[in-house]
Amino acid sequence: MNDDAPSTPHQGTLRTADSLIQAGLVPPDQREALLRVARDYATAIPPAFSNLIEHPDDPIARQVIPDPRESTQQPHEDVDPIGDDALSPVPGVVHRYEDRALLKPLLICPLYCRFCFRREHVGPGGGLLSDEALEAAFQWFEAHPKIREVILTGGDPLMLSPRRMEKIISRLSAIPHIETIRLHTRVPVAAPERLTPALLDALESDCSVWVVLHANHARELGHDARLAVRSLLSRAIPVLSQSVLLRGVNDTAEALEDLFRAFIKARVKPYYLHHLDPAPGTAHFHVPVEEGRALLAHLRGRVTGLAWPTYVVDIPGGKGKVPLGPDYLLPQSEDKNPQRQVKAPNGTVHAFT
What we know:
Elements: H1 17-22, H2 31-38, H3 47-50, H4 59-64, E1 93-97, E2 100-103, H5 131-142, E3 149-152, H6 162-173, E4 180-185, H7 187-190, H8 197-202, E5 208-214, H9 223-233, E6 239-244, H10 253-265, E7 269-274, H11 289-299, E8 310-315, E9 320-325, E10 340-343, E11 349-352
Parallel strand pairs: 2-3, 3-4, 4-5, 5-6, 6-7, 7-8
Antiparallel strand pairs: 1-2, 8-9, 10-11
């Protein structure tokens, strides 16, 4: 597929087992198993994303096509793996760090990732925060002057209407202690047509507005996605990336290098590479931490520092994100010699003071 050519949608959003079968993405004999999966987890594959699928087992398809294995929960998996519910002081708000908090104005996404850590909550019926709940959230932010940054997530905040987005951005921008508004989104790769001039206008703010784009494979960053990113950059909105390390999607050095280079080509700064959160039915995507660290170490020196993300794990229970390395500083010798040693990307060891 030529990623420099605009996509030509050939169908509507795929939402049901039958539509997936008709599209040739799952075999008919999986229908009953997928109906069981659908009782718990939503499916949506919009045209811009389904057009990227070359075959039903490729890295794009694996992210979004439901799998019978999702019905099997492993003992270590949790319906709220990063502690959102326990850290929600009012509906729609999650407060994990002293200086920032999440605002989840809706629980709807343009597509539903099969590895999502909020998969128990998001879906077409997730709806919007009511006006009353949204006002209670704004009042909570007003009452907490240590909050400097609000992160709009959900759901996908760029699924909001321009009118509602403008209301949220304006209200947050009017709170004196809020300096930064960040939006986490899949829209530029999943539904780039949503980034209309009206929606971009709604993002105008005296606060510092940032967008964090979630993509996991280089093929997601084709012509239409890059145009969507460019539309954000044209409004002076910086764009960072977040990705999840996923078995069968990006778990090779070559796939990660291609992904990070594709971000840079699109003028997106790689920000986070996430270790998989243990949501129910996601074990088939798991990549051990040791393997992830080795993959990042393999790329050190092969890609520019501009393309280097921080590999992180979200500690279960809402204890926050921590970097996982890889490490290059070697343990200090017992004689407390002022010289320390580091390991270079090629594996050689060198001293410095």
